[in-house]
Amino acid sequence: MAQIQAIKGFADLFPAQSRVFQMMEARAREIFPRYGFGELRTPLMEYTDLFCRGIGTETDVVQKEMYCIPDSKGRSMSLRPEATAGVMRAYIESGVHARESVSKFFTIGPMFRHERPQKGRMRQFHQINCECLGPKEPEADAEIICMMMDFLGSLGLHNLTLQINSLGCSSCRPVYRKTLHDWLARLDPALLCEDCKRRMETNPLRVLDCKVPACKEATAGAPVLLDNECPECREHFAAVLRHLDAEHVPYEINHRLVRGLDYYTRTTWEVVSNDIGAQGSVAGGGRYDGLVAQLGGPAVPGIGFACGMERLALLLEGRPQPESRPDFFMAVLDPSCRDAAFGLTQKLRHEGFSGIMGYESRSMKATMRQAGKSNARCALIMGTNELAAGTVIIKHMESGEQEEAPLAEVSARLTAE
Ligand code: HAM
Question: Considering the entire predicted model, what is its pTM?
């Protein structure tokens, strides 16, 4: 019969990889609460309108990358391509904004984008995402960036570049947009790729972000947003950078960093690595002061970021990984011992030890090979003699030493290991 394969761009995470993901999640769960963040789990599916209004109809994510299905009434639902829009919906719908002036949430889980799969780019991928709603002050920007860098540092990732920019606000960005559009319109159109010719009209800032070398060259002298910002935005950005300097968080200002999602205002950033190929952006985020209102909520500013777990896992490849080591392997030399061995295994598990039951009764040599493969710290060996004596042999796998222990004393001996 034909074998059924996983969907292209959707991957299985076997225990060794899952342990790396669990380690990242554990670090996140340890560090984010120090900054007042609590976990919010939102649905994997939302009405498509939420993403259109939240992320922007002109973005690649909304135009080309969403997995949409109609519900029974024909209303379109989509698998979430990112977490921010869903978190905003939950924040507004729950009314939590009326009860607290600052809300901080982190969300961990799968996201879905129909992109062309390649190393570091999946159709189902995982994000560790954080959102802080309420404060408009630059301290909130610096704080969340520091938290993100603490998290990345806790994974042992230090060789990363934080690129940062300011995208202005609803008063200065439209003016810059027009300035940039007019500048682009004076270029020879043949110098720009087809996408940029279109973007120039729909969202000229995205032209700055184009990866096509000819476009980059043609727009090298384009006016810079930071030079065109209003005094408030400039002051805000300067304060963010001042706090980062004070905290010794290194950054590079990247004038061409505009991000692929439309909700950003003021501070925006990406964390980039040169060690994992073309898909080098491991985290990205920014302020989104108009988003909550745009989705029908109150005028509450916000800021957040997301890290891509697959890309972080790529960076961690080759480093010592967390391993799972059972405390014991239960080796049963004779079928008559199975009931007692099963009982002992369960008793030890209930006492908090991790153990692997050797189901088959084989020769001593074969059984010990199995015990070795299980990577357990000890083998507990039970044959007819031990069964009759009410004991078990504890073999310490590393030293090879053996001792016989009454059943009642096994857990004390394992604890002393
Ligand atoms: P984003 O830049 O679209 O931002 O994604 C954040 C991170 O998710 C990227 O830096 C990358 O590591 C990872 N990522 C994105 N697409 C893929 C993919 N196809 N395969 C593997 N990894 C991927 C956002 O999603 C925003 N919602 C972040 C944010 C939160 N901004 C404010 N709050």
Answer: 0.93
